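Researcher: I need the complex structure. Ligand is protoporphyrin IX containing FE. Inputs:
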Amino acid sequence: MLNAQETKLVKDTIPALRQHGEHISTVFYKTMLRDHPDLHNYFNNVNMHTGKQPRALTSLILAFASNIINISELTPKLERVAQKHASLNIQPEQYEIVGRYLLRAFSAVLGPSMTPDVKLAWTKAYWVMAKMLTGREAHIYREFEAWKAWRKFMIYDKKNETIGGSIVSFTLKPVDGKALPTFLPGQYITVRITVPGMKYAQLRQYSLSDAPSPDHYRITVKRDQGTNWDYLSPRDDMTVSSAASSASDSSIGSVQPCRPGIVSNSLIDEFHEGDTLELTHPSGSFHLNPNVDTSMPLVLISAGVCVAPLMSILNTVVERRITRPVSWIQASRHDAPFQAHVEKIAKKHPNMRTKFFKSRLSDSDVLSYTSTFDNDFLSLTAEDLYLSNRMTEYYVCGPEKFMIQASNHLQRYGVQPERVQFEIFSVGSFEMAHD
Ligand SMILES: Cc1cc2nc3c(=O)[nH]c(=O)nc-3n(C[C@H](O)[C@H](O)[C@H](O)COP(=O)(O)OP(=O)(O)OC[C@H]3O[C@@H](n4cnc5c(N)ncnc54)[C@H](O)[C@@H]3O)c2cc1C
Ligand code: HEM
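Model: Output:
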């Protein structure tokens, strides 16, 4: 632990580091990946390119330093990171590399203010945090038991969940034929594939979208249309043309840009029944609480493909004949994935209510889509949200703006934040985005 003097040195430098957060992120990742290019096999290049990942890491370190006396406040954030790291198979020895480059980036920003004492204090602070993460990750890896790192799965079934085929479910069976571990409904796996033209392995998380089963898992993937893609800024992990693949590293990235939505489009267009891909063990901190009183109502709120983890929760509740009252609230732009399935369940279960909100806006009108939900939310009744029961649990998954609106409405209705769980299909937790 840090002594009082070290804590003060760390805290005194936080404002300067916060002010130059972007610079730290750029220096840190650029130099680390330049010297350790194998780490490209772990990091999602899009999140690096857009700065989301560096920002998430730096903001957590600074939040940690600000809360150094009261670290327990950060537990949910650390848990999300440890679960994500475990899903990516991050190992303790890699913390040494990350720490070295992060502290160098701090020095670059602080200049002469990074005295030997300040550096020592920050090194200690980094390792307090690293130890907390590696300790928790070691525990998670022990729970994974025999399934370490990557396991091969075969695509057993591939099914369109929407008329246009923009959302597709994959039923996956392990090639080794051994029983699959159970998971907590709401959790995700990481998929690893190689994409022609890309130098490094591509890793992405996908929520498990069905109840646990010992012989298969199901994921549901949305084709990313790449509406945010900056066509003028090719990424540094691309070797798109054959000329580029034989060229020197400095030419990589100067060739034609790769198409957007690398993994989702590859999975949907190029992976067929019988093909194989690799997965890590299920993990994640967004999940159905397995130890609660089954009379507590459950409110499941989703938008678009973010219905996937909630589908797993609902199917599990139904399969286990849990008698909790359930309210299903689903927003979608066109046809809602799984709507017919959910309606069939609702018909058989008198204690289940459903609301489907459809927006008639075009694909490109993503921002207005969110404001539509704001109005839809106002049309929900106290019964739809089980507001009279102080024990109701809420699970929300959707685009960030959608979740902000859902969160604001729930707060306005007096729902305590600890009863609401959010899942974000990106880096950085929803809570982090609102600090
Ligand atoms: C916990 C978790 C669970 C998830 N569950 C699901 C799920 O169940 N189903 C699902 O479909 N997805 C899920 N996701 C999202 C998924 O992991 C992928 O992020 C998603 O499929 C997009 O990946 P991609 O490779 O297709 O797109 P990427 O190639 O990673 O691109 C992502 C976005 O960035 C844009 N982009 C690309 N390059 C640039 C650039 N240079 N500058 C600016 N923008 C750029 C793209 O246009 C695209 O819109 C989940 C994510 C998390 C973290
Ligand atoms: C104290 C040290 C570290 C901190 C504070 C930290 C913090 C974070 C945070 C905040 C995220 C985003 C999590 C989310 O999705 O919400 C993240 C993701 C990630 N971290 Fe770490 N991390 C640390 C060490 C490491 C190490 C040692 C590695 C190994 C190389 C690593 C690799 C990754 C990867 C690959 C991701 C996912 C990136 C993506 O999907 O874009 N991290 N980390």
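Model: Summary of the prediction. The domain at 298-433 is CATH 3.40.50.80 (Rossmann fold).
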